[in-house]
Amino acid sequence: MKKHNFSAGPSILSPYTIKNTADGIMDLNNTGLSVMEISHRSKDFIAIMDETQNLFKELLDIPEGYSVLLLQGGASMQFCMIPYNLLQNKAAYLDTGAWSNKAIKEAKLFGEVDVVASSKDTTYSYIPRDYKVPADADYFHITTNNTIYGTEIKEDMDVPVNLVADMSSDIFSRPVDVSKYAMIYGGAQKNLAPAGVTFVIVKDEILGKVDRMIPTMLNYQTHIDQGSMFNTPPCVSIYAAMHTLRWYKEQGGVAGMYKKNLEKAAILYDEIDRNPVFVSGIGNEDDRSIMNVTFVMKDEYKDKEADFLAFATGKGMSGLKGHRSVGGFRASIYNAMPQSSVQALIDAMKEFEKNI
Ligand SMILES: *Cc1c(COP(=O)(O)O)cnc(C)c1O
């Protein structure tokens, strides 16, 4: 039986993505070849690359002057590529969690880093709002969705410098005004495809402004000039991404996904707030992620956490254990997660409450 997959990443993909990718792995477009074994320079693969990049542009309404790159190395490689390409003197970073922290660590290798605010004091249970972005920074880096802690920056902010956002775990979950960002990037394995491809949406004009030499593979300009085909791209992962994007389009695009995501998140948070056994990890409702819902058991039931995990596992649920740094539970309810699975979790929480 198919499980209710609440894993934080790699995570649930739609049956549409899995089925169509599997078909192309067996036989791509009746070519008699698998998508795993064709040349990335072949007409069939070039069509896959083109369609994937075009669907990014269409679904996110990406303005002229931006490039969509499909690279490798994960979001983690971007933590170093961004300062390599953009940090001349100083960069500003908002510290909202472990991923922000890793990005900050890499940036420090390239120049001065101004951490404008941090919520580390409460294990990242909120999004700091009281800070100023220095106007002389080369860019300001944010992590819009904090996958581990369950907080999310849900508005596109106005800042006086280039805004760079790690959207690994909330890309395509809500409408985004791309024109407010100089760069948006992320690993694929949360809302797009199996691990292997990393998307980068970059405003072309921000590049070429640093003095240092940049190795060819780490230079965004290389990949822009070569249409993301400088070297062999992660073909299968891109093929899967194309199917996910086709499915998003069929589902009403980003607006359609957003509507469903809001409903899923609302019913789950309502149950966490209602159920006397559980409590949300995130006090400020405005900061609660619609992708990763974190919760723990109230102090008086703390010793029952393992019991609930076992109970939910018995009901076909997978991946609910919270990150080791926060404990408790984390239900990742990405785009591909059907409301019926969220409802199954809610039912399990109610049943557990009754029997406690
Ligand atoms: C998962 C995740 C990452 C790490 O992505 P990799 O592709 O494994 O490098 C970075 N940032 C955020 C917000 C994530 O959720």
Summarize the structure.
The protein is of the alpha/beta class. Helix content is 35%, strand content 17%. Helix 4 links the parallel strand 3 and strand 4.
The quaternary organization reads as: single chain
What would CATH call the class of the largest domain? Alpha Beta
Helix content: 25-40%
Q: What is the rounded Rg?
A: 21 Å
Low-pLDDT windows of residues: none
Shape: globular
> What's the pLDDT, averaged over the residues?
97
The CATH homologous superfamily of the largest domain: Type I PLP-dependent aspartate aminotransferase-like (Major domain)
Task: Count the DSSP helices.
Answer: 9
The distinct bound ligands, ions and cofactors come out as:
pyridoxal-5'-phosphate
Q: Main beta sheet, described?
A: 7 strands, mixed
Instruction: Just name the CATH architecture of the largest domain.
Output: 3-Layer(aba) Sandwich
Number of strands: 14
Secondary-structure-derived class: alpha/beta
Structurally, the number of domains stands at 2
Distance between the termini: 28 Å
Can you give a write-up of this model?
The protein is an alpha/beta fold. It has 2 domains: 15-250, Aspartate Aminotransferase, domain 2 (3-Layer(aba) Sandwich), CATH 3.40.640.10; 253-355, Aspartate Aminotransferase, domain 1 (Alpha-Beta Complex). The chain contains 9 helices and 14 strands. The strands form 4 sheets. The protein has a 7-stranded mixed β-sheet, sandwiched between helices. Strands 11-12-14 form a 3-stranded antiparallel β-sheet, with helices on one face. Helix 1 (15-26) crosses helix 6 (235-250), helix 2 (43-60) crosses helix 6 (235-250) and helix 6 crosses helix 7 (253-274). The longest helix has 22 residues, at 253-274. The model has no long low-confidence stretch (mean pLDDT 97). Pyridoxal-5'-phosphate is lined by residues 9, 74-76, 99, 143, 147, 166, 168-169, 187, 190. Pyridoxal-5'-phosphate binds at residues 9, 74-76, 99, 143, 147, 166, 168-169, 187, 190.
